[in-house]
Design goal:
The complex is a heterodimer of chains A (341) and B (237).
Chain A (H helix, E strand, L loop, with lengths): L5 H8 L15 H17 L2 H24 L9 H19 L3 H23 L5 H19 L4 H4 L5 E2 L13 H25 L1 H11 L1 H6 L4 H27 L1 E2 L6 H14 L6 H19 L4 H15 L3 H18 L1
Antiparallel strand pairs in A: 1-2
Helix pairs in contact in A: 2-8, 3-8, 3-11, 3-12, 3-13, 4-5, 4-6, 4-11, 5-11, 8-9, 8-11, 9-11, 12-13, 13-14
Chain B lengths: L2 E12 L2 E12 L3 E5 L6 H9 L3 E8 L2 E2 L5 H7 L1 E4 L11 H8 L6 H14 L1 H5 L10 H13 L5 E5 L7 H18 L2 E6 L2 H7 L2 E6 L2 E7 H6 L1 H8 L2
The chains are: A mainly alpha (341), B alpha/beta (237).
Chain lengths: 341, 237
């Protein structure tokens, strides 16, 4: 066996700085448990409207995780995730409204419906790449609200009026308000979905997804069926967003076509970038951003809230180009540095 | 020696542009065949055609099976490992994850762990960098990673697309020493595409010379090496 050359040895000696590495701080067990503990006591400390808002942050986070699986881990773009969110929301609302389905049972149905729809949409769409796929999904986003308004579907969808859902009470006589209960229910679903996403990304399937993102040609040479994995990822991504849509419908107690416009797709995309593309916990930062920052912008200037929000996004992109993921990494490195000293 | 890979009348095209015009050649079992030729001769396309990455017609037989209509994934599963031009690094994954991806179609997980160690034996630098992002490796290291990853498939045939490209001469020699070892010790057959003809002819037992999608000369590598006229007129050294 030939010995490594000097050149190679030299290269080994100098410490390489990875461009993007997964921040480990949030992956640390104690950090996870501390965050969960805070999440568990929070609804008892804050007012019910904030509890409701935190619930929506979690809902957004689930949808953003779904988008992240597609964009961050598989390298496909979507401007059409509002359609999957809408489908999930309507499936849940119709099941509860028309056939008295228990609200918790609507989630798997909404998820499966979106998986099938996403997978089937992904089959032809995966031939498209980059901006072309973005356009195809854009078409989906634009079409969805209008389809929901169609009069032949009105019996099911409620047309322009939408569907009103009643808020569930806490079960087993638990001493919780409706808002608190929904928060805990959503938190449980969020934890499960996050763990599943984490395991998926760490699995062989996840590695194949990322290989396709990094180098589709080489991935094919490794024997990876690109068409299959891309469609599956599209399906799983839609499933996440659909479950979020169903939860969102239950939490907001209302679905209507105009809640699910193209703007929702962009909101999810903003949340994805703010949180950090390709980093799962980023979804929580992104979810909080898209929920609270527009309100904050409105409190600064009612008339110019959109402009203020836009400026905030631009500032954030300049200061934190890799999103919350980059910030967490920087903090981790600083903490580590102090520990060494 | 019997042929492991037999290619007969291979045509390939990118859309309406035909690039290969009826190539016929073979790689013997445990042998090393090299395809030589300048830019645009169709060397890279030939490798892609064998893997089913471009539209092709003709007859390609690997280990007795016709693979002309097989998908790229299927051909990889049969034991044909393609080391593409540009190395095909999965830039944002670690070195170890890249290597494991080479074995993604295999079901024998325990053997895969052994094979990882075997690759680290050939390329110690990869072991030192196993947790590092593959995109941050130097060009030479990425080439080693590409070959190591191909080895993880436990291939019978490796298709190498310009492994010397962009590497320092000393590194090139080191790499070719390793390729020789792989061929002799592991019995991996090689189909080597190279612009560096002198180097390729040292490793190969058989050589084919390509010009604009046609084979213009073929013979034993030793003969070509020793025939000054051919060397001067076709290979320019």
């Amino acid at each position: 066996m030939p010995a490594p050359s000097e050149e190679m040895m030299e290269a080994i000696a100098e410490p390489a700085v990875p461009e993007v590495s997964a921040p480990r701080l949030v992956g640390h067990r104690s950090v996870i448990f501390a965050t969960l503990a805070i999440a568990l006591v929070l609804p008892f400390l804050v007012q019910s409207f904030l509890t409701f808002q935190l619930t929506l942050v979690l809902v957004y986070a689930i949808a953003i995780i779904g988008l992240n699986l597609l964009t961050g881990f598989n390298g496909q773009f979507s401007l059409g995730h509002s359609a999957f969110y809408a489908l999930g929301a309507y499936v849940a609302a119709m099941l509860m409204d028309k056939v008295n389905f228990p609200y918790a049972a609507t989630l798997p149905v909404a998820g499966i419906a979106c998986f099938v729809f996403g997978f089937l949409f992904g089959l032809p769409a995966l031939r498209l790449e980059g901006v072309y796929l973005a356009l195809a999904t854009f078409a989906l986003a634009v079409a969805t609200p209008q389809i929901l308004k169609l009069s032949p579907l009105e019996y099911w969808t409620g047309g322009v009026q939408g569907i009103v859902i009643s808020k569930p009470d806490a079960p087993y006589g638990l001493p919780l308000t409706q808002d608190q209960w929904l928060y805990f229910f959503t938190l449980l679903v969020t934890v499960i979905m996050t763990l599943l996403a984490h395991n998926l990304v760490a699995s062989r399937t996840g590695r194949a997804m990322m290989a396709i993102r990094d180098n589709p040609t080489a991935a094919r040479s490794m024997g990876i069926n690109i068409a299959l994995y891309k469609s599956l990822t599209f399906g799983v991504s839609a499933l996440y967003t659909g479950v979020a849509g169903a939860l969102g419908a239950i939490v907001v107690q209302f679905v209507a076509p105009d809640s699910f416009t193209f703007f929702l797709s962009i909101t999810l995309l903003v949340g994805l970038v703010v949180g950090g593309v390709g980093w799962i916990p980023g979804a929580f930062f992104g979810g909080a951003f898209v929920l609270f920052v527009p309100n904050f912008a409105e409190s600064i200037s009612k008339g110019l809230s959109g402009a203020v929000y836009g400026v905030m996004i631009i500032l954030l992109i300049f200061m934190l180009p890799t999103g919350a993921a980059g910030l967490v990494r920087a903090v981790t490195q600083r903490l580590r540095g102090q520990n060494i000293r | 020696m019997t042929a492991l890979l037999d290619v007969y009348g291979l045509h390939a095209s990118y859309g309406p542009t035909r690039v290969l015009h009826g190539l016929s050649f073979s790689v013997s079992d445990r042998g090393v065949t090299t395809l030589l030729g300048g830019n645009g001769a169709g060397k890279t396309t030939t490798l892609r055609a064998i893997c089913g990455m471009v539209a092709r017609t003709g007859e390609i037989t690997f280990a007795g099976q016709t693979i002309t209509r097989s998908s790229t994934e299927h051909i990889a599963r049969l034991g044909v490992a393609h080391v593409p031009d540009g190395r095909g690094t999965f830039t944002r994954l670690t070195v170890e994850e890249n290597l494991e991806l080479g074995a993604i179609t295999r079901r024998d997980r325990n053997d895969v762990v052994d094979d990882l160690e075997r690759v680290f034996g050939y390329f110690p630098v990869l072991q030192k960098r196993r947790g590092q992002q593959a995109g941050t490796l130097s060009g030479g290291e990425q080439q080693m990673l590409a070959i190591g990853r191909a080895l993880m498939l436990r291939p019978r045939l490796m298709l190498l697309d310009e492994p010397s490209f962009g590497l320092a001469p000393r590194l090139v020699h080191e790499l070719f020493d390793i390729l020789t070892t792989l061929n002799k010790r592991e019995g991996v057959s090689l189909l080597l595409v190279e612009q560096n003809a002198a180097l390729a002819l040292e490793l190969a037992d058989h050589a084919y010379l390509l010009e604009t999608g046609r084979i213009v000369f073929s013979g034993a590598a030793r003969e070509i090496r020793e025939d000054e006229k051919i060397r001067r007129s076709y290979l320019g050294y």
